[in-house]
Write a structure and sequence with these properties.
- The chain is an alpha+beta fold.
- It is 17% helix and 41% strand.
- The strands form four sheets. Strands 1, 2, 4, 6, 7, 8, 9, 10, 12, 13 and 14 form an eleven-stranded mixed β-sheet that branches. The protein has a four-stranded antiparallel β-sheet with strand order 5-11-3-15, with no helix packed on it.
- Bound molecules: calcium ion (2 copies).
- The site of one calcium ion has 7 residues, from loops.
Length: 358
């Protein structure tokens, strides 16, 4: 008797919890004035994503296939379906039902359900709540599903009622395009789990647009070795994003596959003053670069006594003699942020060969 009582109590508790949950959902709907449906999309491998939509909203369900570990992803035959909760959802694609001899409709203009080929049939069955698709290809090239972004089925649905809905991918047959049409999935059972099938309810972020950054670097010999390496860096948000090295004095550089955006192009070479260029990459971008030896105040590629004179004049404070920007950096040979008479003296000594800056 006690057992029965506690069972009844347990049932009552479950019921009351359910009622509270339902009330909470009602409260949400009342607060926002919007009725919603929670939709869960599940792949043939059981991974799923869930999202909430307003009644009346149309959304897209993305299902991908990557079988790169099975015959390089070349699929020769597939037969799949997507089952959905038809009391909550309806397929938003247009489909025709007045085709002779069809007891189900054909989806039309669905360019994103894969594979749409002459040999494919795509239908919304007379049984509401299932979309079937199937195809086979005799060629050994098969359909290539060799990356996580290879679309298998991309279908739009409209939410017609509030509640909880599921969209479940099923596969009767999935076979690689070899002589035997070796099955990955056979009669609905996964016989080779060596594939992935990502699903998503939001459009995956597009691959970044990339461009090439290139140009000519002018630099100078400051040692016997004219092939000193030049390091080119692209820095974004204070982080190194891309880099390349080239060798020589006047030399072309090129960095491919750079995501579009704003960067600092920073160039380094031994015995030279590193230089920054602010660049915006939007399509292929050319930026020529010139870097000068330490102490080359007038940026002519050589350290001479007049470089020392320019540094000295700056140190003396004449307004007309102020060094700025890269010339200032080249003159500040001890790199203390100021151009002073000791910088000028060091440059004189370098020019006269008395002392080596490098
Ligand atoms: Ca110079
Ligand atoms: Ca200095």
């Amino acid at each position: 008797m006690r057992k029965i009582l506690s069972l009844m109590l347990a049932i009552l508790m479950v019921v009351s919890v359910t009622v509270v949950a339902a009330n909470a959902a009602d409260a949400d709907a009342a607060a926002t004035g919007v009725e919603t449906a929670t939709v869960t999309l599940t792949s043939v491998k059981g991974n799923s994503v869930t999202q909430t939509y307003a009644v009346g909203e149309t959304f897209t369900a993305y299902t991908y296939l990557n079988a790169s570990n099975c015959n390089e992803g070349k699929i020769g035959s597939l037969n799949g379906s997507q089952e959905y909760t038809s009391s909550i959802l309806e397929v938003a694609e247009t489909y025709v039902t007045d085709v002779d001899d069809y007891d189900y409709g054909l989806l039309e203009d669905v360019d994103t359900i894969f594979p749409i080929l002459k040999s494919a049939t795509v239908g919304n069955a007379g049984i509401e709540g299932i979309v079937y698709y199937n195809a086979s290809i005799p060629s050994k090239a098969g359909f290539k599903f060799n990356a996580d972004d290879r679309a298998l089925v991309i279908l739009r649905y409209t939410v017609k009622a509030a509640g909880e809905a599921t969209i479940t991918n099923r596969m009767q047959t999935l076979a690689v395009s070899d002589d035997m049409l070796t099955r990955i999935i056979d009669k609905g059972a996964i016989v080779n789990p060596d594939f992935t099938s990502p699903v998503a309810l939001s459009e995956p972020a597009p691959l970044p647009v990339t461009s090439t950054v290139s140009g000519t670097i002018t630099s100078y010999s400051t040692s016997a070795d004219a092939s000193d390496e030049i390091l080119v860096e692209l820095i974004q948000d204070n982080k190194l994003a891309y880099s390349a090295t080239v060798n020589g004095n006047t030399v072309a550089y090129s960095i491919a596959d750079v995501a579009d955006g704003d960067y600092i192009l920073r160039v380094h070479k031994e015995n030279h003053v590193s230089r920054d260029y602010e660049i915006t990459v939007s399509g292929d971008t050319t930026q020529d670069v010139k870097i000068c030896p330490i102490g080359d105040t007038n940026l002519n590629g050589r350290v001479q006594s007049n470089d020392g004179m320019f540094a000295y004049k700056h140190a003396q404070g004449g307004a007309a003699d102020k060094l700025e920007g890269y010339a200032f950096k080249c003159a500040d040979v001890n790199n203390n942020g100021r151009v002073q008479s000791n910088d000028a003296m060091a440059i004189y000594k370098q020019a006269s060969g008395e002392h080596n800056l490098f």
